[in-house]
Amino acid sequence: MTDKTLHIVGGGMAGSEAAWQAANLGINVVLHEMRPKVETFAHQTGNFGEMVCSNSFRSDDDEQNAVGLLHWEMRAAGGLVMASADANKLPAGGALAVDREAFAEHITAKINAHPLISVEFGEVSELPTDGTWLFATGPLTSPALGAAIAAETGTDRLAFFDAIAPIVYADSVNMDIAWLQSRYDKGETEEEQKAYLNCPMTKDQYEAFIDALAAADKTEFHEGETAGYFDGCLPIEVMAERGRETLRFGPMKPVGLTNANGPENKPYAVVQLRRDNKLGTLYNIVGFQTKMKYGAQTEVFKMIPGLEDASFARLGGIHRNTFLNSPTLLDDQMRLKSRPNIRFAGQVTGVEGYVESAAMGLLAGRMAAAELLGRDLPPPPFTTAMGALINHITGGAEAKTFQPMNVNFGLFPPLDGMRGGRKGRKERYKGYTDRAKDDYNQWLDGQI
């Protein structure tokens, strides 16, 4: 009799989602997690689904945004990650942001309570030769397991560096200078419209801040390491190096905001902080991932008007992200071609972002469950957000230049007869999402 147990390595969002999906299809799941026995640089707890960077799942607009469409698809499939996000969401304008601690606690409780999921704590450092396995070890794959993967694939691990933004205690922000407002007053409620703290800068303050970023002590890379950043998570000082005005057109853009402490004063630049927990006691500095050393961070960030006396719950940092060259290594079932009993899911496959990682866990969990039940589950159509992503990482991308990718409409097959360019974008995006929802529902209806 074939063992119908699925072993999943990694209790992040992808692993937790995969476990949830497979167990709900009647498969016994063993979830292996090395934390808290083996710690990582970025994690603070041993909870499942812990968020280590931003607390935002980005746009929740399922008609005009590819990320929002991915939210919709995951909800339609009974996704644990989206259910946990919805249960612990915070005001964030048009974005979906969550209380990170409550979110992880919710996922942990659901996993621990599921009758078909058991948890084993400890590091898995080899690729098993038998059994059905799914590796969702994420960007912080342990060195030992990374070496085992590299030995199996015959290639060096691909890696880039990812940076974490600092978190500030809300009661240490000077509200005589800062004010509460979402950009363009986005949101249906007053709470949503005031989801961000805004710290204004004059031109002189901005120029001094840029100079301080350039001069600050920064984390050095170890000998032999190369720094290839993912553009969606660049350290702020790296952005500043690309031009003195880069930040003013990026995370510090002053548009869509009116200074409540002096409406006549038009800021030259604005630093935004987004609520990080339900109590509203913690705020993270939006887009301020950094590789500055801790001492330099406190000095430089206290130059921001309103943060002169700021207290930090967590300072920023930098860590190594590991991912596979998936177009050459994985089939369209996310199986390792050289060892079909092993699947990969999540950020280690070369998708970027919480939602994308969890979505790949959802797919891998369902595919593994179908296989154990003796059935075939084809990938979703390429016209859907999930289908576009899995197509990209398992063959649609150019292997020689493969880099982590967020979901975006550029991955979708074109729509016939739709107008191109910026002027036709709203109609075109609605066409993409309408088509995707129809095709995704048909894919779901045809399943187990």
UniProtKB/TrEMBL annotation:
Domain of life: Bacteria
EC number: 2.1.1.74
Single biological process term from Gene Ontology: tRNA wobble uridine modification
Cofactor entry: FAD
GO terms assigned for molecular function: flavin adenine dinucleotide binding; tRNA (uracil(54)-C5)-methyltransferase activity, 5,10-methylenetetrahydrofolate-dependent
Catalytic activity: uridine(54) in tRNA + (6R)-5,10-methylene-5,6,7,8-tetrahydrofolate + NADPH + H(+) = 5-methyluridine(54) in tRNA + (6S)-5,6,7,8-tetrahydrofolate + NADP(+); uridine(54) in tRNA + (6R)-5,10-methylene-5,6,7,8-tetrahydrofolate + NADH + H(+) = 5-methyluridine(54) in tRNA + (6S)-5,6,7,8-tetrahydrofolate + NAD(+)
Annotated Gene Ontology cellular component terms: cytosol
Keywords attached to this entry: Cytoplasm, FAD, Flavoprotein, Methyltransferase, NAD, NADP, Transferase, tRNA processing
Coiled-coil stretches noted in the UniProt entry, renumbered to this chain: none
One Pfam family linked to the record: GIDA
Sequence positions that bind FAD: G10, G11, G12, M13, A14, G15
InterPro entries attached to this UniProt entry: FAD/NAD-bd_sf, MnmG-rel, MnmG-rel_CS, MnmG_N, TrmFO
SUPFAM superfamilies from the UniProt entry: FAD/NAD(P)-binding domain
Subcellular location: Cytoplasm
Record-linked HAMAP family: TrmFO
PANTHER family for this protein: GLUCOSE INHIBITED DIVISION PROTEIN A (PTHR11806), METHYLENETETRAHYDROFOLATE--TRNA-(URACIL-5-)-METHYLTRANSFERASE TRMFO (PTHR11806:SF2)
Protein family: Belongs to the MnmG family. TrmFO subfamily.
Its biological purpose: NAD-binding protein involved in the addition of a carboxymethylaminomethyl (cmnm) group at the wobble position (U34) of certain tRNAs, forming tRNA-cmnm(5)s(2)U34.
NCBIfam families from the UniProt entry: gid_trmFO, PRK05335.1
Protein name listed in UniProt: Methylenetetrahydrofolate--tRNA-(uracil-5-)-methyltransferase TrmFO
